[in-house]
Amino acid sequence: MKKILVPTDFSATAEKALRFALDIATKAKGAVILYHVYTAVESPFIDTEEKRIQYNQEKENSLLLQMEALKKKVMNEHTLVPVASIAGRSPLIKSILDTVTNNEVDLIVMGTQGASGFKKAVIGSIAGRVMEKSPVPVLLVPEKFEWKEPEQIVLTSNFEKGDKEAIALALAYANIYNAAVTVA
C-alpha cells in the first residue's frame, strides 16, 4: 500500500475517501495520488483547434487548483504524506485504470454513494465498475461512513487459488492497524 489512488469528484464522500487514504498512507509510509477525470472539448464544431486546446488547458489548470485546495483542507494531520494531483481525460473508468497501471498504484480508495435500484440499473455504479475491472484492490468508502480505526477485518472468500493475494493484502492492511482478520 505504498501508492494509493484516490479518484475525486470533489464531493463530501470523495473527501472522506481521501482522509481514509491519507490515514493508510501515513501508517504505511506511502503516497497518495489525488485524481479527477474531466471531459475535454474535442469537437471540430466548437470554435478552433487552438481555442479547444486553450480551453482544455485552462480546465485542467482549474481542476489542479481545486485539488490543491482540497489537499490543503485535509492535509493538516497528514503533512508528511506526499500527495500528487493529476487531472485525467475521459472515459472515466479507462482513465482511472490507465493511471493505476502507469503510476504503479497498488490500492484505489474511493468514495461510493451506493447506487441501487433504478439508478444502478440505468447508470450503474462507477465505483462498482472500477472494482470489477481493477488490477489492484479497491477500498470503497460509503457515503455515511464515519472514520474509526478498524479492529476487525472480515474477508469473504471462495478459497480459490487466486484468493491468496487477497488474504495477504488483508493481513498487510490489518497489520497497519493491529486489527484481527477473519476469513469466511
Describe this structure in words.
The protein has six helices and seven strands. With 184 residues, the protein is an alpha/beta fold. It has a five-stranded parallel β-sheet with strand order 3-2-1-4-5, sandwiched between helices. Helix 6 links the parallel strand 6 and strand 7.
Please supply descriptive tags for the structure shown above.
7 strands, 184 residues, 5-stranded parallel sheet, single chain, alpha/beta, two-stranded parallel sheet, 6 helices
TL;DR of this structure?
By secondary structure, the chain is of the alpha/beta class. The chain has helices at residues 12-28, 49-74, 92-102, 117-123, 126-133, 163-177; strands spanning 3-7, 31-38, 83-89, 107-112, 138-142, 152-155, 180-183. It is 46% helix and 21% strand.
The biggest sheet amounts to: 5 strands, parallel
Low-confidence stretches: 118-124
Total beta-strand segments: 7
| Rough outline | globular
Strand content: 15-25%
Amount of helix: 40-55%
SSE succession: EHEHEHEHHEEHE
Total helices: the number is: 6
Structural class: alpha/beta
How far apart, in Å, are the first and last alpha carbons? 23 Å
> Order of strands in the sheet with the most strands?
3-2-1-4-5
Mean pLDDT: 88
**Cα gyration radius (Å):** 18 Å
Task: Give the SSE map.
Layout: E1 3-7, H1 12-28, E2 31-38, H2 49-74, E3 83-89, H3 92-102, E4 107-112, H4 117-123, H5 126-133, E5 138-142, E6 152-155, H6 163-177, E7 180-183
Parallel strand pairs: 1-2, 1-4, 2-3, 4-5, 6-7
Helix pairs in contact: 3-5
